[in-house]
Amino acid sequence: MTDGEVDAITFPPHTPAEAWATLMAGNARFVDGKSSHPNQDAARRASLLSTQHPFAVIFGCSDSRLAAEIIFDLGLGDAFVVRTAGHVIDNTVLGSLEYSVEYLEVPLIVVLGHDSCGAVTATEAAVSTGKMPAGFIRDLVERITPSVLTSLRKNKDSDVSDMIEEHVRQTAARLVENSPIIATAVARQRTAVVGLTYRLDDGSADLVYSNGSIA
Fold it and tell me: What general EC class does the enzyme of this chain belong to (predicted)?
């Protein structure tokens, strides 16, 4: 059993800094091809029958290549996961994240984006052509449009990768701005909010936003 596995099973993180370190250690194992697959046995399953104490809530894109428990080498009960295309926020998402903070006392909120995001790419195309997609896809695009426009205001030569990073930053900031529950937890240093972009080619997750102490 690796040191990281012992930490995940015996000593669950309780502070934002501990949660951040555990999450990044798991991603490093995944990148190196040395995943330990902690907390995935029958004993762990049995221990979660009546309770859960996840150390992170991960709000990520629904993309099939962005499986949070795999890329951070996590197991059962380690992460509370919420996913929408383009990690678009709505009231249900905010309620889910608030639940994790208020009732599960999760010390770390992660907004997880990734390169080659189809939702952001579709939004960039809509902004550049003026042609909106059909159906409820239009709602996704409308919610991502402010991030794309901000990226273009910062740099008129912005590409989709720049827009994806900007969208992660704006999403993470908006969680704190829109939710008094999350804002209070961050202000009291009970919780930190970070934004990460995942690289499909090497499996690494890079920090592009943080609010709260993770050092």
Answer: lyase
Q: Flag whether 117 is marked binding.
A: yes
What tens digit of pLDDT does each residue of 113-145 get? 999 999 999 999 999 999 999 999 999 999 999
Domain that holds residue 115: 3-211
Q: Is 114 annotated as a binding residue?
A: yes
The token duo for 6 is: 């012992």
Here the tokens at position 128 are 């550049």
- Single out the residue of 163, 180, 182 nearest to residue 172, CA to CA: 182
CATH code of the domain in which 133 resides: 3.40.1050.10
Kind of pairing, strands 205-211 and 192-198? antiparallel
Short-list 86, 94, 196, 92, CA closest to 143? 86
Q: What's the average model confidence in pLDDT over 178-204?
A: 97
Residue with tokens 């979660």: 48
- Please tell me the total count of domains within the chain: 1
C-beta separation of 74 from 68 below 8 A: yes
**182 and 174 Cβ atoms separated by less than 8 Å:** no
Task: State mean pLDDT over 156-183.
Answer: 96
Decide if pLDDT at 9 tops 60.
no
Q: Residue 4: pLDDT above 80?
A: no
Please indicate if the annotation marks 157 as binding a ligand: no
Residue 61 marked ligand-binding: yes
Please compute the mean of the pLDDT values over residues 144-165 and round it to a whole number.
95
